[in-house]
Amino acid sequence: MSEAVNTELIHEEGRSLISVILLFIKLELLTNLVASPFIIISFVLDDYKLYEACMFVEIIGLILSYFYVVSKHCKKEKFKIRVKQKFPIRFLVYMLLIQISYTLLYETTLGAFLNRFEVSKNLIESGELWNSAVIFGSISVCIIGPIVEELLYRGVLLEHMRKRYNPLVAVLVSSLFFGIVHGNLHQGVGSFFFGLCLGIVYVKTNSILASIFLHMVNNSLYTFTNYPFVDIHAMAPVVIIISLALLVISLLLISKTKIDESKKFNFRFLEKHNLAQ
Q1: Distance, CA of 94 to CA of 98 (rounded, Å)
Q2: In this predicted model, what pLDDT tens digit does every residue of 170-229 receive, in sequence order?
Q3: CA 218, CA 194: separation in Å to the nearest integer?
Q4: 143 near 215, Cβ under 8 Å?
Q5: Which is nearest to 155 in space by CA: 91, 235, 73?
Q6: Are the C-beta atoms of residues 205 and 85 closer than 8 Å to each other?
Q7: DSSP H helical segments within the chain, as ranges?
């Protein structure tokens, strides 16, 4: 009885900062535990230079581990992922503007500064594996990664915190988790600041579908383009001014866009299992 009451309190009031930190550690450990058989198999395949098979196994492990752990958490705490809220089509355009302006601003400021530091060995090895298995690597980075990461960092962690704290605090802390988990300086700093954009979009729309879309666009552009048509660093001052102005404008447009809370997507499977709101 008391456990049921505690679950209801957590659901209604959210979690404290310490509780969210412990939840973050718990979910990450459980995810890695569930994924461990797939990780072991992928290491074996990597030794035999079966890179496509290695990436395929990693993708399956990533999907199963995250969805299993998040669904178990939702059922245990009667917690629902915000995924049903519809938002205007023009919102997608605003998110594209955010992504482009953020990327240009980051690459000509912090990104340029971080390029002076040595890239971590793990990041180099990940890039080499991706180059050896482009198809599955692209699926993992551009589709699967954004879905599972948004489920955890915005769908669970940020949502728990925003019920108790100011949304800005929730966005900042969830973005910090998002940066830390990437495990290296270059990705970590970029992920933290991009996490702020993702968090703002999520809070505004009340839907991880919006943050998933933005995350997919970001990863896809980083994967398939490197801005070869222009040297943005050679014209950094101009790029910084334009991209900063564009970022501010796009965020203002998003903040002023009204969301009709009565319009919802119908996800029968998620509703049947009481996982979505």
Answers
A1: 6
A2: 999 999 999 998 878 888 899 999 999 999 999 999 999 999 999 999 988 877 765 444
A3: 9
A4: no
A5: 73
A6: yes
A7: 2-13, 17-47, 51-77, 90-108, 110-114, 121-132, 134-139, 145-150, 159-162, 167-180, 185-205, 208-224, 236-256, 268-272
Q: How far is CA 36 from CA 52, 53, 66, 168, in A?
A: 19, 16, 12, 35
One-character DSSP codes across 251-267: HHHHHH----TT-B---
Quick: pLDDT tens for 1-13: 444 444 444 445 6
At 41, list the tokens. 């198999």
Average pLDDT estimate for 261-273: 67
Provide the token pair at 77: 């705490």
The amino acid occupying position 200 is I
Q: 21 - beta bridge partners?
A: none
pTM: 0.84
| Tokens standing for residue 241 | 């001014």
- Rounded distance, CA 148 to CA 189, Å? 20
